[in-house]
Amino acid sequence: MTIRNFPYLPPMTTAYITHADCLRHEMGEGHPECPDRLAAINDQMRASGLLDHLRCLEAPLADPDDLKRVHRSNYVDLIFEHAPRHGQSGYVQLDPDTAMNQYSLDAARRAAGAGLLAVDEVMDGRAENAFCAVRPCGHHATQARSMGFCIFNNIGVAAAYALEEKGLERVAVIDFDVHHGNGTEDMFGDAQWQDKVLMASFFQHPFYPYSGTDGPAPNMVNVPLRAGSDGAAARKAVMESWLPALDEFGPQMILISAGFDAHREDLLGGLALVEADYAWITRELMALAAKHSQKRIVSMLEGGYNLSALGRSTVAHVKALAEL
Questions:
Q1: Which residues are catalytic?
Q2: How far apart are the first and last CA of the chain?
Q3: Does residue 251 contact residue 162 with C-beta atoms inside 8 Å?
Q4: Distance between CA 111 and CA 134 in Å, rounded?
Q5: What is the pLDDT of residues 30-41, one digit of tens each?
Q6: What is the DSSP secondary-structure string of 221-272?
Q7: In which element (H, E) is residue 94 found?
Q8: Taking burial as the number of CB atoms within 10 A of a residue's CB, which of 119, 129, 167, 208 is the most buried?
Q9: What residues have CB less than 8 Å from 289, skipping those under 6 apart?
């Protein structure tokens, strides 16, 4: 896709951050986390005309030090050391679900780097909010291991950067993927983060990764939903569990793990949300951000494997962010 840079846009601006490297990462024929996911999003964004209203930017490469704010140093070093090099065929298998090809390290660094750029954009006033159309996804990557298609925890990297480099004291991480964001909880459930990060999520349970309900840390607002739950159940979770906790916490930035695999057409999950539900959740979070966070929102793509539903849901989410 064509990336355009608009240095002078009105203050009500949504940044759209992606990179062609994220299309080159693939994990083998038939793998559901495939380049077609990002292509479907880009196609729907173009077809909707939304790109003409967004600040479109290319994601930079995250440095190892950026990743080590939330990942253990030896894990980051191991990924850099063992990733296939350009020109090297085949895959390095990180776990049963996650592999790297010759482009995966660059893609993973761009995915994490997109979050860093998004934080810069909203903190420096060039955009009110941002959506990062990137892959590989990140919310299952823990401090010390990859899993569930994830190499680096993109939302975790962005949140830690906002806190440690941008002077914020409190950020919220929202996760509406069908799968619990166990990696993000692994990072921010630690005592050192509990006063700084509030994580709110809903997810199908029991379901992969079979976490989120066994004594979560006090800064975790986890709402498990049974298979078949629809948008009404998701909206109830937001209204009754998320918003009161977030309002009390008063985040100075909201970061979203935007997984769209809770859509009713996505057969990798068992929930039944539709595009209107994602738009509604987005608008509720925007109202909260207007109250507490100077409208600062950074959203990053996670799951979503039905290509049509993924593209349509992303458009609904970004259109709401852009107030279009």
A1: 140
A2: 22
A3: no
A4: 5
A5: 999 999 999 999
A6: EEEEE-TT-BHHHHHHHIIIIIHHHHHHH--SSEEEEE--TTBTT-TTS--B
A7: strand 92-95
A8: 129
A9: 129, 254, 295, 296, 297
Q: What is the pLDDT of residue 6?
A: 45
Sign for the pseudo-dihedral over CA of 298, 124, 71, 75: positive
Q: Which amino acid is at 317?
A: H
Element (H, E) at 60: none
- The full set of domains in the chain, from first to last, is 14-321 (3.40.800.20)
Half-sphere exposure of 233 (CA within 13 A, CB side): 19
pLDDT for the residue numbered 12: 54
Residues 6 or more apart in contact with residue 221 via CB below 8 angstroms: 198, 199, 200, 201, 241, 242, 245, 246
CA separation for the pair 260, 269 (Å, rounded): 10
pTM of the model: 0.96
Is the per-residue pLDDT at 4 higher than 80?
A: no
181 HSE (CA, 13 A, CB side) = 35
